[in-house]
Design brief:
Oligomer: single chain
Order of helices and strands: HHHHHHHHHHHHHHHHHEHHHE
Structural class: mainly alpha
Number of strands: 2
Shape: globular
Helix content: 55-70%
Strand order of the largest sheet: 1-2
Largest sheet: 2 strands, antiparallel
Distance between the termini: 66 Å
């Protein structure tokens, strides 16, 4: 007997499964804890649960019909007709034959080597890409989208929007037949998620004004942990897309990290030039921009091109987020995490870069029996037409995702509210989910919302930061007394910085006071619980003036 059929190559199958799991980890726990740490504390639970729900729901939809809509036989029968190559025939992939027989993509037969793993591996691998796309989209609408609306939106968006883009480019559909190139999802995933997220943010409306003005991350270390999972998980994101554990997969991984590191450092330097200090959110944004920009061409451009692309990916999105976000439609639309800047613009840059810098020397598949090697060329290698195709593909993905997402949200809005209620927007997680993120001993950590006056006195009447006036001097004196240091040692702090530090000190003292006092409604830890272990506290939001129910 033998454990496997002759067409199955254990190394390729194992690498595909590992790559898929790495990409899955990018979502859970990666983006769940990145989102939960980078948002305000009152939205940490809601943000993480939106990720977890989307991951689970996408898997159900994917296996029932969406996989074959993306990678199956064309619903229109194929051929040169535009309408015959937009989406695949929906049907499930849960039967024994679907799971155990050799994987294949009908319209790519003969264009890529025969795959060395079963259908279940391909379904799993492509599922995690579909899931992370709608999860990235969620970053644009955190802090105000109704969870009920999100529950409806995810399966509809995966079914009606994502499948079309995936089939047109990856499934051998219309755009692929025109020559469109997207190695791992710069267009299919990142531009699609950014445009759809931006559209959703416009339709749903902005967060509360105070949430937009005071959006300090609640746990930067958790955000860093999520970002780290995202970065290293991208080895599977780009390394798995040749579908083989070959030399091109290794090159794609190396190029991914070269571009990412360069983009992160570029963004950091620009932040230092502008503000004098590097900062955590900025470095995370630079990292993401680099990861996204290399994705469309990771295995098709050289390492030198990846290095240059990293500089561009760290510069252009930094400029758009820093300056363009304060102008026109980008100012009017509240894109919570700036997904259009960290995914949309880098994805577009990377996709166009393929049309410029794709190298014929970056061989994806070796030719056999007289057939040529499989590689691609961009403008600088004598094929300017590829840039035209890439630009047209970008336009199609932008228009399709904007229109389709708009229609889906308008339809959902006929049945449920797209936004949370005003009470839910004010309270946050406790009102929406009946639970909130708490400190290690079960006491909620106070935020700066309770001391808004301190944030205001650090600025002059016209809103400019006061750096040397009497109010700033008094703030530094008060902060020095609170910290037990000489006020002169705080001379470099502006009034606004001193006010923020003083507010944080007040919040810390309030937290210590709460911890020292008996807390009603919080269960006393049992002797078996480990001291300092993080806990979640579930409680009801009780309207003012109403007693708690025992």
């Amino acid at each position: 007997m033998t454990p496997s059929p002759s067409w199955l190559v254990s190394g390729d199958n194992a690498w595909q499964l590992i790559s898929a799991t790495l990409v899955g980890i990018m979502s859970i726990p990666g983006l769940a804890i990145l989102y939960g740490g980078i948002v305000k504390r009152k939205w940490a639970v809601n943000s993480a649960l939106m990720v977890i729900y989307a991951f689970a729901m996408t898997l159900v939809v994917w296996t029932l019909f969406a996989f074959n809509m993306s990678f199956g036989s064309p619903a229109g029968g194929g051929g040169p007709n535009f309408f015959r190559n937009l989406v695949g025939v929906p049907h499930p992939v849960l039967g024994a034959g679907d799971q155990l027989h050799q994987a294949g993509i009908p319209l790519l037969s003969g264009l890529i080597p025969d795959l060395h793993f079963p259908g279940s591996t391909l379904v799993y691998f492509q599922f995690v890409f579909a899931a992370i796309t709608v999860i990235i989209l969620a970053g644009a609408v955190l802090g105000r989208m109704s969870f009920k609306a999100w529950m409806i939106f995810v399966p509809l968006w995966i079914t009606c929007v994502y499948t079309v883009g995936a089939f047109m480019i990856w499934g051998g559909g219309w755009l692929a037949q025109l020559g469109a190139l997207d190695f791992s999802g710069g267009y299919v995933i990142h531009v699609a998620a950014a445009v759809s997220g931006f559209t959703a943010a416009a339709v749903i409306g902005p967060r509360l004004l105070k949430d937009r003005q005071n959006c300090i991350p609640n746990n930067l270390m958790m955000a860093v942990a999520g970002a780290g999972l995202l970065w290293l998980g991208w080895s599977g994101f780009n390394g798995g897309d040749p579908y083989f554990a070959n030399a091109n997969a290794a090159a794609a991984i190396l190029n991914t990290h070269i571009c990412t590191a360069t983009a992160l450092l570029t963004w950091m330097v620009l932040d230092i030039v502008r503000t004098g200090k590097p900062n955590t959110p900025g470095m995370i944004n630079g990292m993401i921009a680099g990861l996204v920009a290399i994705t469309p061409g990771a295995g098709w451009i050289s390492g030198f091109a990846a290095l240059i692309l990293g500089v561009v990916a760290g510069t252009v999105p930094w400029l758009t987020m820093t300056y363009l976000s304060q102008r026109g439609i980008f100012k009017r639309v509240d894109d919570t995490l700036g997904v259009i800047h960290t995914h949309g613009f880098p994805g577009a840059i990377g996709g166009l870069a393929v049309g410029i810098a794709a190298s014929p020397n970056m061989i994806q598949y070796l030719g056999t029996k007289g057939s040529p090697d499989v590689s691609f060329s961009g403008w600088i290698h004598g094929n300017p037409h590829q840039l035209v195709v890439q630009a047209f593909t970008l336009l199609v993905i932008v228009v399709w995702n904007a229109l389709a997402t708009f229609v889906i949200l308008k339809v959902i809005g006929l049945f449920v509210n797209l936004r949370m209620s005003n009470a839910e927007l004010e309270i946050g997680d406790l009102a929406v989910h009946g639970e909130e993120v708490v400190d290690v001993v079960g006491v909620p950590v106070p935020t700066l919302d309770g001391v808004p006056a301190l944030a205001a006195v650090g600025a002059d009447a016209d809103g400019r930061v006061s750096t040397g006036g009497p109010i700033a001097a008094q703030l530094r004196t008060t902060l020095g007394e609170a910290l037990g240091v000489a006020p002169g040692s705080l001379a470099l702090l502006s009034g606004e910085e001193a006010a923020t530090a003083l507010a944080r000190h007040a919040a810390l003292e309030a937290r210590l006071t709460l911890q020292a006092a008996p807390v009603t409604g919080v269960d006393t830890p049992t002797p078996g619980e480990i001291a300092g272990e993080a806990q979640n506290h579930t409680a009801k939001a009780v309207p003012a003036g109403e007693p708690d129910e025992e």
